[in-house]
Structures are given as C-alpha cells and as structure tokens.
Design a protein that fits this description.
Blueprint (H helix, E strand, L loop, with lengths): L3 E7 L4 H16 L5 E7 L4 H13 L3 E5 L6 H11 L4 E4 L11 H9 L4 E7 L5 H18 L7 E8 H8 L8 H8 L3 E7 L12 H15 L6 H26 L7 H34 L16
Parallel strand pairs: 1-2, 1-4, 2-3, 5-7
Antiparallel strand pairs: 4-6, 5-6
Bound molecules: uridine-5'-diphosphate and magnesium ion.
The site of magnesium ion has 5 residues, from loops.
C-alpha cells in the first residue's frame, strides 16, 4: 500500500503537461516519501491524451492510468481516481499544473499536525471580472440554499487520509462535487494558502455554459431549500390577504350604507387564493425535498473514531 496517492482528472491535456506533472509531483514528494502512486483518470479525452498517459506511465512506473469510455466530467473522474487510490493519504489536484505540485509538502505537513482534511486556498487566481461576479453570486446562492459554508477560494486541491476516503466511497451521490462532499463528511479539516499556477499548455476545458450547468446541478443537487420558497411566498400573500380583508370589514363598519368597493374585494380574493396555493405547493415541496434526500442514499452518519478498535 503506497503512503500517498495523487489523483488527477485529465481532459485533453498534452503530453508535456502530464510529463511535467509526474516529474514535479515526484520531486515534491521526494522530501516526504518515495512510496507513492499517481493516478491519472482520462475523462474521455482525445486518443492522443490516452497515448500520452501510457507514454508517461512507461517512463514512470509509479504512474497509473484509467480511461473513461466517454467524457463523464471532472468530478466523476476524481471519484474514479479516489476509488482506486490505495494510499494512506490521497491528494486530489488538477492535471493542468494550475494546482502547483510544489504545494504538496506544505499540505502534507499541515495534515501531520492532526488534520484529516487539508484544502488549498487559491491565492491570486487569474480571473476576469465577469467570472469573479458569477462565482461570487454562485457561492452566495449555494451557501444560502444549502446552509453550508463553501469557500470560493477552495476547489479540489486537497489531501485527505484513508478514513475520509473510506467515508467518501460510501456517499453515492449522482451529482458529484468532490470538495463539497468532503466538506459534508466533516472530520478535522483546515486549509492552507498557496499561489495558483497559470495554465502553461492548452486551454481550460470548461466552457462558460459548462460552468453554469455545473453550478445549477450543484445548487439543485446539494440543497432542497428552494422548494420551501413557495411556503414563504404563500405566507406573505396570506398576510396581505388578511390585511386587505380586515380593511374591508373596517370600511363596512364605518360606512354601513355605502356599497363595498370592488377593487379591494377582488384583490383580497386574489391574494387569498395565491397564498393558499403557494402554501400547499410548499407543503408538497417539503415531501419532494424529503424524497430527494432519501433517493441520494447518503449515509445517515459518518464515524470518525472508535475506542478499542481491533485493527
Ligand atoms: N477536466 C476533466 N473533465 C472535464 C473537464 C475538465 O477531467 O470534462 C479536468 C482538466 O483536465 C483539469 C481539471 O479538470 O485537470 C480542471 O479543468 P480546467 O483547467 O478546464 O478548469 P479551471 O482550472 O479553469 O477551473
Ligand atoms: Mg485549469
């Protein structure tokens, strides 16, 4: 069993990148251990990428490749890598060298202080203003809807120990988000700051549309709070309806001989109907939310430690 497994998803990266990745990871790990493995998961890339992985694997026996039948996405690729990782510690990083391998010793040292999970906070990531705005809005929405604290500067670059890996494998979510799942698992976690590298070769494989699609899947996959919005709306409409109704009653008491004004009466009925309908929708939403949670088949608990463990 290797001491450290490094997992990186690969989508259409070039051989220079992957060779440099293997070299730099090896050099970074040299000061920690020689007992490591690198697992590259080819996420249905062009054929040249797989040839590149095989070529690098021939020169570096510590490197293993895994190839998907088609493009399943970065996070399923990470999951596949983590599933086949045997190390006491598992490091997940991008394969395009933007997650700089030189950070690995710092990650490892931080973990040795007694943490199960250490993430990297990316500093000075080159981002356009539009990207920053969208990412900021996305994380605020996600945090509000999920009630969790996802950190925008953290992606997947992290080290976790075998305990966390074992727990991770028991989460069968269909919509995968490595960092999110690891955070959901709990355990003793912390983060270190590190510079984020520039992409030297090739281009980012995510399109803007792809990023939005991923963002929406996450919001819907990681929270059911949106379903409860209907209840809040229904309550607001109901309050308005009751205020309007009270107003009409008071008007009638003060002016018994005048006919009832039509506009307030109609609006009262409209708000009342909208309020009741939304309330009912919200109630249905709660049941649907529960169903969604059940269909995820997530474990209902995660054990971190036991006393008298016979192992
Ligand atoms: N990636 C992947 N499958 C995909 C898209 C990306 O495995 O469908 C990998 C890619 O090779 C890289 C990492 O995920 O190692 C991050 O992708 P990218 O560099 O495009 O994203 P960015 O760094 O711009 O967020
Ligand atoms: Mg990148």
């Amino acid at each position: 069993m290797p001491h450290i497994s490094v997992v990186a998803p690969v989508y259409n990266e070039q051989e220079v990148t992957l060779a440099a990745l293997a070299d730099r990871v090896g050099a970074a790990l040299a000061e920690i251990t020689t007992d490591y493995e690198i697992i590259l998961v080819d996420d249905g890339s062009r054929i040249e990428t797989w040839s590149a992985i095989c070529a690098v694997g021939r020169t570096d026996p510590k490197l293993r490749g895994l190839r998907f039948s088609r493009n399943f996405g970065q996070h399923p690729a990470i999951a596949a890598g983590v599933d086949s990782a045997a190390g006491d510690w598992v490091i997940v990083m991008d394969s395009d060298l933007q997650d700089r391998p030189e950070v690995i010793p710092d990650l490892y040292r931080k973990a040795q202080e007694g943490y199960d999970v250490v993430f990297v906070n990316r500093q000075e990531r080159p981002e356009t203003a539009l990207y920053q705005f969208c990412a900021g809005a996305f994380y605020r929405t996600l945090n509000f809807l999920s009630g969790q604290k996802y950190e925008r500067r953290q992606a997947n670059y992290s080290i976790v120990n075998a305990k966390v890996v074992e727990a991770f494998r028991r989460v069968p979510d269909r919509d995968r988000f490595y960092g999110g799942t690891v955070r959901w698992l709990g355990f003793r976690s912390t983060a270190i700051d590190a510079l984020h590298g520039e992409r030297e070769y090739g281009r980012p494989s995510y399109s803007l549309l792809g990023r939005f699609r991923f963002a929406f899947r996450l919001i819907f996959g990681f929270s059911t709070r949106l379903l409860y919005v209907a209840i809040v709306l229904g309550l607001c409409f109901s309050v308005v309806a009751f205020a309007l109704a009270a107003d009409i009653v008071v008007y009638k008491i003060l002016n018994p001989s005048l006919p009832l004004p039509g506009w307030p009466s109609v609006m009262t009925a409209v708000f009342f109907t909208a309020g009741i309908t939304n309330l009912m929708l919200g109630l249905v939403g709660i049941y649907i939310g529960n169903l969604v949670e059940h269909t995820k088949h997530r474990p209902i608990y995660v054990v971190a430690q036991r006393t008298n463990a016979n192992e």
